[in-house]
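Recap for those who missed Tuesday's class. We walked through two folding examples back to back. For each one, the amino acid string is listed first and its predicted structure tokens come directly after. Nothing is annotated here on purpose, so try labeling regions yourself before you check the end of the notes.
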Amino acid sequence: MLSLARSGLYKVYGVGCWGLFFVVGLAGLLATLPIPDLHLRRHVTRTTARVFLFLAGFRLRVRGLEWLPDGACVVVANHASYLDGIVLHAVLPVRFAFIIKKEMVTVPLAGFLLRRVGSEFVDRVDRHRAAADVKRVLKRAASGEALACFPEGTFAAHPGVHRFHAGAFVAAARSGLDVVPAVILGTRAILPDGRALPRPGRIEVEILARLPVAASEERVVAVNLRLEARRLIMDRLGEPDLDTGPRGRH
């Protein structure tokens, strides 16, 4: 009986969370419509994300923000849940533009709001479109804009870290921007892949020491940044390595 009651409470809580997400998200989107300034729209979006996390009862703890440079850099984080994007929007300063998989464009409400805050959408399937998308990202990095992304590009219900795509690290190497690894803990337990309703829980974000761009060949720098950032994130997470392909750790 107790387990049934608890299951029922979780369902009520989960449905309430999605309702809250829709109401708070819609309010944030409407608030950005009359604002012409991109940074002000990002302020609204960050506030919206923080309000949602607070009202949903997710306990958010952030450490290591002092590792973020005052200027541009590339933040790379592990990916475990749909909540990760909301969490990073709530945590990072408004100068960051997010690099997001193109599938998010079609998500109602979220896709339009992400476009309003200057996100870059990258195609993961079509190579020709992906090349054009990466060029846009490189241009933004070269202009000195701070970027944030999830280099795994996907997530799964079970713990583990997938292979990191190279795009963000190439942008960092080519533009001379430091890479800042970030670790997100707790979101998979709250809303894993395959579960429709979230559960209450604690979320922790830890910003790790930034990785400076070395003076070396661009390709070598990008590869080294990718491997080192992934190693640091995996060490902090303590999760399995899901990159079993021939290009895995090498």
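Example two. Treat it independently of the first, because the proteins are unrelated.
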Amino acid sequence: MKIIETERLYLRELTMEDKEEWAKVLSDIESMRFYPHPFSEKEVENWINWNIDNYKKYKHGLWAVILKDGDIFLGDCGITMQNIDGEVVPEMGFHIIKDYCKKGYATEAAIACKKYAFEVLNYEKLYSYTILENIPSQKVAQKVGMKLYKYFEKNNLKQIAQVVNRDN
């Protein structure tokens, strides 16, 4: 079932059938360079199950990003509840298979998720965070209108959080 649709993409819930394609992001050394390590098969399964639980608990999570032309799995984008420096907030995240990066897919999906967060979920603010070195993710957040919120530490790593308000 399509949750969100854009000109080139649609977003739907992740399922365990996505595991092999999803591993192209989560198990890839280059794609996971801003994470502690690439994910094992079990960790990929846990990631999918975590999102399935989020769909039930919050009515949102990270959704599969599918390219309409060819019905190709590109990665994920969506909204999860995250702890940013002691405050649990709606946070937008995205991960795109490296072969499809730098084509505007993450930005297109993120803009649609921002609209969904405000118009459907009625959040007043939407956040994004990443380790300080993850400049590509920070640039996507900026393209959807996010501004610096704060710097903080999580898991002994320096993080940057960005935010956009409903009114922006």
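Answers for example two:
The chain has four helices and eight strands.
The chain has one domain: 2-124.
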